[in-house]
Design goal:
148 residues; Arc Repressor Mutant, subunit A; 2 domains; three-stranded antiparallel sheet; 6 helices; 8% strand; globular; transcription regulation; HTH_MarR-typ; MarR/SlyA-like; DNA-binding
């Protein structure tokens, strides 16, 4: 039996893009029931650790430019899901946190997201997560070496 041709980088990019778009579409369908956008979910997800995060870290985690993030966080503040406070260690920075209402909302939508997304199987999920973390680490290292 002939060996298949080696995979091309565009094949991997195609698969990653397709998987991300399908997963995002499915996630958004679950979030729509609660009137939550994918970007808001990313912000709430980061803030759910309770540590408080500066706006630069939130923008990076949510994959949003600063101006877009500011509008989104303003909206989340208006909904009483998020609040901002001055960073006690660096008074020039602002930290975002979940409000108690935001924590309750996050726990509920997090359960709905987990219930609404298909699972490959525990070992496959762990394998995929590990491979994706390696890929991200390699890409970040390559970008840092190229920039430096």
């Amino acid at each position: 039996m002939p060996t298949p041709p080696p995979r091309q980088p565009q094949d991997l990019m195609q698969l990653l893009t397709r998987a991300e778009r399908l997963a995002a579409r499915r996630l958004q369908s679950v979030l729509d029931e609660d009137g939550c956008s994918l970007d808001a979910w990313r912000v709430l997800s980061l803030l759910s650790d309770g540590a408080g995060h500066n706006m630069s870290a939130v923008a990076e985690a949510a994959f949003l430019p600063p101006a877009t993030l500011t509008k989104l966080v303003d909206h989340l503040v208006d909904q009483n899901l998020v609040y901002r406070r001055v960073d006690p260690l660096d008074r020039r920075r602002i930290l975002a946190h979940l409000t108690p209402r935001g924590e309750t909302f996050w726990r509920r939508i997090s359960r709905e997201v987990r219930a609404g997304l298909p699972v490959l199987g525990e070992s496959d999920d762990d394998l995929l997560r590990g491979l994706l973390e390696r890929l991200v680490g390699t890409l970040e290292q390559t970008a840092a070496e190229t920039a430096g």
